[in-house]
Design brief:
GO molecular function, one term: phosphotransferase activity, alcohol group as acceptor
Number of strands: 24
Keywords: Kinase, Transferase
Mean pLDDT: 94
Distance between the termini: 66 Å
GO biological process, one term: carbohydrate metabolic process
CATH topology of one domain: Nucleotidyltransferase, domain 5
Helix content: 25-40%
Radius of gyration: 23 Å
Family: Belongs to the FGGY kinase family.
InterPro entries: ATPase_NBD, Carb_kinase_FGGY, Carb_kinase_FGGY_CS, FGGY_C, FGGY_Carb_Kinase, FGGY_N
Length: 505
């Protein structure tokens, strides 16, 4: 079969492209690093032209590898939120400000304290954070009004790449969801723009469309730069997380996907929006269906394991990270459920779900003179899994159907079993790790008329299912109560600690 569909994923730290046959076989892949610029405190930016050139380079490499094949389409996904601004001539208005930029944190705190974000919470089911377009637009207008006046279009990353590929302006339902969408009406809300004085931003945003829609055809200039055919169909760009969910074949309420990456993410598909002033987490519309994706993103996931494993790697034995991890896993398996009374709060980078507390710190609780390294290692793995359960418990309760797990942590078999036992539900792990690219590729193929995206993503995958142990789950329910009590107490204590100034420099 000589027909090829291409997926392009423009992430915060890496840009990837892959070419697939219709059966899901990957025949070519390219990757480039994506540089984050730190121009000042709290600032996270990227050079929009450099990001585009990285995407061009990846596409050119994949195109060369597929020379002679029939290229069917390109599908695009990328990092979400932030502020990617373009002027009337189609040129970047400075660097893109990213989703993890915090320069508007103080402004946001003031809005929250005066209840001015309540309309956004009720409408979009999302709690604002500093790196959303709303807060960054407010910052730009307040600090650089002259620059803001030159902005004609505000994109997300995937929108910017789609524009450069085709010359067309669009955003999809998932990228358009945060923070101004009315989840019931599926369109922007004037009340939400007005609540945070962002009326000037509305005219600069594209109305949301399905990610399986055709955005346009590849321009002649881009065709020359990449070696791909001019006029090649390109789909409306989508959020990387939404593409991953499509790539996993998920589009119905009740389905759940977990990511145990450097950070963790709990994604729950639902048909009910959290219409409250201050929701927990964020909400995004599904790329192709009417489902709502409830997104809870604890700040620390697999990074906690890496942190602990590298504290004293020589004492664990092993010369490589994988050998150290294997040694630590062996130790952890010798420890019973509950880590012999040790609880780990995984707030190494503060916390953002199921509660927001940038000042929270990680901690071990319950250590004694006989506490071992194995106890601590198991507590770390249990603590990060408990944060996932905490997200479920804060939303609608534990899942009632098997969940899919991806990310670097999904390759740790011991951790996968711990997660299954803690949430009380089977955990399904695919050996494939390219669901975002595959989802984007199938959205592109759908835009080219090849069929329904959710049908196109079906492929044979080797999976491993970790079956939840009912007895261990019952034991973990008591451990979770301990975890949640300690977490709540530490959040209260942290507020008092913040008022105490450390005399040391």
């Amino acid at each position: 079969m000589n027909e090829i569909r291409i997926g392009l994923d423009v992430g915060t730290t890496a840009i990837k492209a892959a070419a697939y046959r219709p059966d899901g076989t990957c025949v070519a892949r390219a990757e480039r690093s994506n540089k984050v610029l730190r121009a000042g405190p709290g600032q996270a930016e990227q050079d929009m032209e450099q990001v585009w050139q990285g995407a061009v380079s990846c596409l050119a490499e994949v195109a060369q590898s597929c020379d002679g094949a029939t290229i069917q389409s390109v599908g695009v996904c990328g990092q979400g939120d932030g502020l990617w601004a373009m002027d009337a001539d189609g040129q970047p208005v400075g660097n893109a400000m990213l989703w993890n930029d915090t320069r508007a944190a103080a402004d946001l705190e003031g809005l929250v304290d005066t209840d001015r974000t309540d309309a956004i919470g009720r409408g979009s089911g999302t709690s604002l954070w500093p790196g959303t377009s709303a807060m960054l637009w407010r910052w730009l207008e307040a600090q650089h009004a002259d620059v803001a006046s030159r902005v004609a279009t505000v994109f997300t990353c995937a929108d910017w790449i789609g524009y450069r590929l085709t010359g067309a302006v669009a955003t999809d339902m998932s990228n358009g969801s945060i923070p101004f969408i009315d989840l019931d009406a599926r369109r922007y809300s004037d009340e939400q723009f007005a609540s945070v004085d962002c009326e000037g931003l509305k005219s600069r945003l594209a109305s949301p469309r399905r990610a399986s829609d055709r955005l346009g055809g590849l321009t002649a200039e881009t065709a020359r730069a990449t070696g791909l055919p001019e006029g090649l169909p390109v789909s409306v760009g989508t959020l990387d997380l939404a593409a991953m969910i499509v790539g996993m074949g998920l589009d119905q309420p009740g389905q759940t996907m977990l990511i145990m990456g450097t950070t963790a993410v709990v994604n729950i598909l639902t048909d009910v929006a959290d219409r409250v002033p201050v929701p927990v987490g964020a909400s995004a519309l599904h790329a192709t269906s009417d489902a709502i994706i409830r997104i809870f993103a604890p700040s620390t996931g697999a990074a906690a394991f890496d942190w602990f494993a590298q504290l004293h790697p020589k004492s664990l034995g092993g010369d490589t990270p994988s050998e150290v991890a294997a040694k630590l896993n062996a130790l952890v398996q010798s420890v019973p459920v509950g880590a012999n009374g040790v609880t780990f709060l995984p707030y190494l980078n503060g916390e953002r779900a199921p509660f927001v507390a940038a000042d929270m710190t990680a901690a071990f609780h319950g250590m004694r003179s006989d506490t071992t390294k194995a106890d601590l290692g198991r507590a770390v793995m249990e603590g990060t899994a408990m944060s996932l359960r905490h997200c479920f418990e804060s939303h609608s309760g534990l899942p009632t159907e098997p969940v899919q797990l991806t990310g670097g942590g999904s390759r740790n078999t011991v951790w996968c079993q711990i997660i299954a036992d803690i949430i009380g539900q089977d955990v399904v792990v695919s050996l494939q790790s390219d669901q975002g690219l595959w989802g984007a590729a199938c959205l592109g193929a759908a835009a080219a008329g090849a069929g329904d995206a959710m049908s196109l993503v079906r492929r044979d995958e080797d999976t491993t299912t970790y079956v939840a142990d009912p007895e261990k789950h019952a034991a973990y329910s008591a451990v979770y109560r301990r975890y949640e009590m300690i977490s709540s107490a530490m959040r209260r204590l942290q507020k008092d600690l913040n008022s105490v100034k450390d005399p040391l420099p």
